Amino acid sequence: MVEEQIRASLFLRLKKLGYHLIRVKLINIKEKKTLQIMAERIKDKKMDIEDCVYLSKHISTFLEIDDPISSSYVLEVSSGGLARPLTMIDDYELFKYNKAKIVFKEKFLGKKTYKGFLQGIDKNGKILLETNEHKIRFNFTEIEKANIDLKWAIENNKIN
């Protein structure tokens, strides 16, 4: 898939520039393609407009060389934002004690969506989540999507 190819191409390049690649998403709306890249500085997990401009220039150059998208597209570079997506297993340790919204691929203990506080990763590589009802352990591969809980992030001043 094109998104994985772009992620593989950009991951180490951005790391060398001091950035962590959060997400790569290619969107088609009415035959117009938009490539969304989410990133953050490695040192402090922040991203401002200057970072976006800087990365946009570098990413454009990288993509011109690799040319993974055959048609024209718009490049958007942004931060993960307040409701930052959790896209890698390391994110669950990195954002330990943050409240997250997890959506599972299949029902887990009777439902697909949980909100709770991340408790890191256990020695077996299972993600730990403490909700009001349960303390649950699950595999990264069971997750459909996950984000930092927006309402909690706003209330607790977790601004990028």
Task: Describe the protein.
The chain has 160 residues and is an alpha+beta fold. It folds into two domains: 2-78, GMP Synthetase, Chain A, domain 3 (2-Layer Sandwich), CATH 3.30.300.70; 91-155, Roll (SH3 type barrels), CATH 2.30.30. Helix content is 27%, strand content 39%. The protein contains four helices and eight strands, in the order H-E-E-H-E-H-E-E-E-E-E-H. The strands form two sheets. A five-stranded antiparallel β-sheet has the order 7-6-5-4-8. Strands 1-2-3 form a three-stranded mixed β-sheet. Strand 4 and strand 5 form a beta hairpin. Helix 1 crosses helix 2. It is globular and about 50 Å long. The two termini are 30 Å apart. The mean pLDDT is 92.
* Global outline: globular
Q: DSSP strand (E) fraction?
A: 35-45%
The parts where pLDDT drops under 50 for at least 5 residues are none
Give the termini distance in whole angstroms: 30 Å
- At CATH level 3, the topology of the largest domain is GMP Synthetase, Chain A, domain 3
Determine the fraction of residues in helical runs and give it as a percent range.
25-40%
β-strand number: 8
- What is the overall number of helices? 4
> Main β-sheet, in a few words?
5 strands, antiparallel
CATH class of the largest domain: Alpha Beta
- Based on CA atoms alone, the radius of gyration comes out at 17 Å
Report the CATH superfamily of the largest domain. Answer: RimP-like superfamily, N-terminal
How many separate domains? 2
